Amino acid sequence: MPLFKQRTIHFIAGYALLFYLWIILFQGNEQLLMWGTSLFSIIGGSVSCVWLVSAYREMSTKLRVFWFPIIVGVFCFFIAICITLDYQVIVGTERPYPSVADFLWLAANCLFLAALIYKVKLVSHSVSFVPFLYNIFIFMTVSITVSAHYLIKPLLQKSSGSMIITIITLAYPIINLGILFTAISLYYLAQYSEQKTRLLFIVVSFLLQIIADSVYVILTLHDKYAIGSLIDPLWTIVLLLIGQASLLSKDNFNYATKRKEPFRSSYIFFPYIMVLLLLLVVFFSSITELNILSIGISLTILLLIVRQITIMKMNMKLVNEYKYLAYRDPLTGLNNRTKFKEDLRDIIAGVKNKDENIALILIDLDRFKNINDTMGHYFGDLLLKAFSERLLSHVHNKELLYRIGGDEFIIILPGMTEKTCNLEAQKMLDELTKSLNIQCHEIVVTPSIGISIYPENGDNIDTLLKNADTAMYLAKDRGKNNFQFYNSELNAKATRKMNIEIALRRAILNEELSLFYQPKVDLFSRGIVGMEALIRWNHPEMGAISPIEFIPVAEETGQIISIGKWVLETACKQNKKWQEASEQPLTVSVNVSVRQFEHSKFVETVKDVLKETQLEPAYLELEITESVMQNFSESIEIIRQLRAIGVKISIDDFGTGYSSLSVLKRLPIDTIKIDKSFIDDIMEPMNQSIVKTIIDIGLNLNLNVVAEGIEHVHQIEVLTKNSCHFGQGYLFAKPVHPDEFKQLLMIKNEALR
Fold it and tell me: Three-state SS for 456?
């Protein structure tokens, strides 16, 4: 709270203290008591008016609609006080009843009521009344009952009979009941509003006024009121509190709601407390007329209330237990995804009109699936618990750490900038990469961290979470164990990736995919000895999409299985067609991804395709990468089954993966293909040595050796010099459409003749 507003609160407290001290000290001196009361009342009212006018000038139009009748009402109230004091202190006579002061007080109360009705209507647009209606009706029933018994009924009995006097006399308590109803309604609505402090100042102000008015009426009825009474300071304190509320309200106008506890003791027990109070009032007011029936009904109501409160307390306990389970992750004890969304919604609502950032830090464990698969799920659970404890020790606000699923954790950091996030994320990496000891196993898990910042990277929960997730996957793509911030370029990549994934599902059906063929050439005779089938995708809207871009998406989503089968069918069918039109049968090579190769029905698929297309197995070569050697025992069994059919097997991109001599010699393969990266710089001594070694290994193991990516004549010279017989590359031909390949085949063969 600003310093000026703190000082105004201190002023009100000091004013109230001095006013009451004056009344207490000069209780026996009627003259000083009256002059002191007058002086304090005028000072308090004047200060309140100054505050109200000052705040009103800086308010928005919407706020002015509420505060204008309040300000006019305060002026009327203040003038009425001054008139009363003038009669009693200056003139020295009792104020006539009714007088101008009475009409001003009534006008002030009517204006206050109108303003409160408007405020309640305004706040209720974002908060439902339904949860509070029961409490409000109980409160008002008790209040109306007490008011009717102690105020309205005695006033009617004491009325002189004049219609005007009766109306004015009854108007006070009736309008006060209306103010009480709106003030209590506003109190409940304030609990769910970001403007709670401002609204509570208003509520307290009018509740004090109602108390002062009610006590005044009771004292007047019993002829016990005199100027300098202990209730006199209350009216000017009310005016000062209203002025203070106006100073708080001028800053902004926001009735955004905030989530509250669904069950609170003060809300649940309040109606029963009011009923008990009414019961006590009834009991003591009729104590002289008590009989066995009134005592019995009083005890019965009391027992029913006690029983109801006991049941409700038990229900609250059950609700709190359910709430704990609903908002907590059962494994780690951290807050869960539901709690994350609710908390983030509240935090965003709290900073919406402020220049503050909120950082979302999404943490995902690298290779956690491998740990689960190798060590078991129980061990994986222990790891998650240990990791969450490590995270808890690092996070400053424990309640803003969440496990949102699997091995994903998220931290909300309000008030963070990109610079401070950098430092925080680096600290996390340093701390979280330390080894964990689990069941005598020393485990090191590394995190990949994605960061999105509100409002720059999104203004709602779903967008911020999606963008943090996108940044996290970028961290994984960049080698894991690092952190990345979200940016618009990432969004474009993520959107394109999603579009590719969606479009890929319809690519085969829409006949958007095609196969191009690149010839394999005998480096000595330059004749075509085979061809490699290469997939191409031409989307009607996105245009040509490179396999480098869409194949990883297909593998990630599992669509590579259906696409791989289509490639196999198309290549075998095309090769069979060429064989039927030519006397020179050639082998077609088809690339197979790891996921496709390890699919349980892959061997059956190959058999079915060969049977359907009637292509001899010897004219089909499957190209696999060295990465399949990670699961060596399963891979070698699949290769043996394929070789048993008669299909040839080639290791693609040889020299860049996992192969070793001991593994290579055990593989029942036919060909190794030297990766293009070695051929590009073949004139360098180191690369020449590597290429020569690979060729020697292949020849010594009776394997065919194919050099990929040949683009220059000098590369052929080095390769043939080292006894490499086969190659492919742009020097001979780029991948071409089947019709062009047929022409290319005819030209090459004609040239050889």
Answer: coil
pLDDT band at residue 21 under the 50/70/90 scheme:
very high
Q: Is 588 within 8 Å of 620 (Cβ atoms)? A: yes
Q: What is the pLDDT of residues 420-446, one digit of tens each?
A: 888 888 888 888 888 888 888 888 888
Contacts of 392 (CB under 8 A, 6+ apart): 334, 398, 401
How far apart are the C-alpha atoms of 289 and 89, rounded to whole Å?
45
Estimate to the nearest angstrom the gap between the alpha carbon of 249 and the chain centroid.
30
CA dist 731 and 750 (Å) reads 19
Alpha-carbon gap, residue 447 to 365, rounded angstroms: 5
Q: Within a 10 A sphere around the Cβ of 168, how many other Cβ atoms? A: 17
Rounded distance, CA 467 to CA 434, Å? Answer: 27
DSSP reduced 3-state for 637: helix
Residue tagged 């002062």 (tokens): 212
Length of the chain: 753
Nearest CA-CA partner of 671 in 653, 693, 688: 653
Are the C-beta atoms of 203 and 190 separated by less than 8 Å? Answer: yes
Confidence (pLDDT) at 255: 42
The encoded tokens of residue 695 equal 């060729």
- Residue 682: phi and psi, rounded to 5, are -70, -20
CA 130, chain centre distance (Å): 28
Q: How far apart are CA 564 and CA 551, in angstroms?
A: 10
My answer on whether omega of the bond before 98 falls inside 30° of 0, hence cis, is yes
Q: How far apart are CA 18 and CA 705, in angstroms?
A: 103
One-letter amino acid identity for 563?
I
CA geometry: angle at 102 spanning 247 and 245, to 5°? 10
pLDDT digits (tens, 9 = 90+) for 508-523: 889 999 999 999 999 9
Give the DSSP letter string of 306-341.
Answer: HHHHHHHHHHHHHHHHHHHHHHB-TTT-SB-HHHHH
* Domain 499-752 coded CATH 2.170.130.10: no
Q: What separation in angstroms does the CA of 430 have from each of 391, 408, 452?
A: 12, 18, 20
Question: Could you tell me which residues come within 8 angstroms of residue 121 by beta carbon, excluding any fewer than 6 positions away?
Answer: none
Most confident of 170-184, 376-390, 643-657, 714-728: 714-728
For the domain bounded by 337-486, which CATH number is listed?
A: 3.30.70.270
Each residue of 230-250: b (16+ CB within 10 Å) or e?
eebbbbbbbbbbbbbbbbbbb
Q: Residues with Cβ < 8 Å from 17, sequence gap 6 or more?
A: none
pLDDT reported for residue 259: 47
Alpha carbon distance 124, 618 (integer Å): 79
Distance CA(65)–CA(197), nearest Å, equals: 20
Pairing of strands 528-539, 587-591: parallel
SS3 state at 88: helix
**The 3-state secondary structure of 378-391, one letter per residue:** HHHHHHHHHHHHHH
The structure tokens listed for 714 are 């000098």
